[in-house]
């Protein structure tokens, strides 16, 4: 009985021991399998990425994403043992510059596509004759020549500058900026509502009587012409505009031969037609050698409430306003014109700050002009002809010292009268005289726009000291 009990205990012990051994063998087998798999993974990581652990791979990929590679891919590896082919693959995000041997980061351009302008328009002179032959409109975000070029991109004739610019204008959204490099134009550009365009330089090669830029009944146009050059015989208009709330700056000159060239053509014409006003515009114009620097006309509607600056050098007329042009404010009005007058007012109600004006040109208020206020601050003042009503000139601070308003001198004569040039801007309104002798008896004066005549009662030899004022 005791023997049976011992056998049973031994058997139970053997079963427990066997179970433990089997469990241990299973663990050993699983562990060796994991070790083998890890070894294969390490080999794979090394073969494919040059690393031996997942952590190492993560670090490496992060570095590759963030770093800006600036070496030469043909000689500089990213990491030890890297194949040249991998470098070339890496170049997909870069442009290689053979001049410097450096890579330039193209991914930045993809990531940050913002550009100064939406389109840049430029031309190429392919035969070196000084005339642009091919015009390109480059979409700056995509880098694509979207219109024009030798291949007539976008179906637009690349030899037609106006067509290329017009196509770009039509394709952009409101206020998208188009920048036009120096360009030759021979046909009119029509600007639509809400466009924003800068011309670096326009060289007009089209008809001499054409309109170069046209804002026809459009509003909210932003236009800048840094330079516009036309031929000596140009008799057209650089910019003709109607509409409201446009911001326009144009600076233009005529090709000059033998000094000043012929004074024809208009730099800027603002008009209000039967159905459109021309109001709240901010206009700045600089013109050299034109017939008219700025013409405003409003036969039916109003051209009013505009902020205007005019610089008209060697123009026949710096400013010509007619019709319903009123309540316009001029913050700068400079002119140097040989013709008289150089400012015409045929409308009324204008508030004009003449900061300066020189040359022989003056002012003419025509018969329908009224209630124009001119503040004159200096320079040489030409003749003022006032055929209107209620027009006023407020003289500037240099009134007492301006020889065109106030002049004096000495004239000697024998007999009873003497005539001399007074040099004033117009027919004197007051003349004063004193003599070197009391024998003259009595004296009187007459004058016209150029001369004063002083007459005495008694014949003799006299010196007359005169002072004359012109206060229209
Ligand atoms: Ca050419």
Write a structural description.
There is one protein chain. The chain folds into four domains: 1-67; 68-105, no CATH class; 182-399, no CATH class; 406-469, Immunoglobulin-like, CATH 2.60.40.10. Helices cover 18% and strands 40% of the residues. The chain is built from five helices and 31 strands. The strands form four sheets. It has a 16-stranded mixed β-sheet that branches. A hairpin with a 5-residue loop joins β4 (134-139) and β5 (145-148). The protein is elongated and about 180 Å long. Calcium ion binds at residues 125-127, 129, 131, 133.
Describe the protein's topology.
Blueprint lengths: L1 H48 L4 H13 L17 H7 L3 E4 L4 E4 H6 L7 E6 L9 E6 L5 E4 L12 H11 L5 E4 L2 E3 L3 E2 L5 E4 L2 E3 L6 E5 L6 E9 L6 E5 L5 E8 L11 E6 L10 E7 L3 E13 L2 E7 L3 E10 L2 E8 L6 E3 L5 E4 L1 E3 L4 E3 L7 E4 L7 E3 L5 E3 L11 E16 L8 E6 L7 E5 L3 E19 L3
Parallel strand pairs: 3-6, 6-9, 7-10, 8-11, 9-12, 10-12, 11-13, 12-14, 13-15, 14-16, 15-17, 16-18, 17-19, 18-20, 19-21, 20-22, 20-23, 21-24, 22-25, 24-26, 25-27
Antiparallel strand pairs: 1-2, 3-4, 4-5, 28-31, 29-31, 30-31
Bound molecules: calcium ion (CA).
Summarize this structure briefly.
The chain has 472 residues and is an alpha/beta fold.
Proportion of residues in helical segments: 10-25%
Mean pLDDT: 83
Low-confidence stretches: 397-401
Percent range for β-strand residues: 35-45%
**Distance N terminus to C terminus?**
155 Å
Computed CA radius of gyration, to the nearest angstrom: 43 Å
**Any idea how many domains?**
4
Largest sheet: 16 strands, mixed
Please, how many helices?
Answer: 5
Q: Which ions and ligands are bound to the chains? A: calcium ion
**Class based on secondary structure composition and strand pairing:** alpha/beta
Number of strands: 31
Choose one word for the global shape. elongated
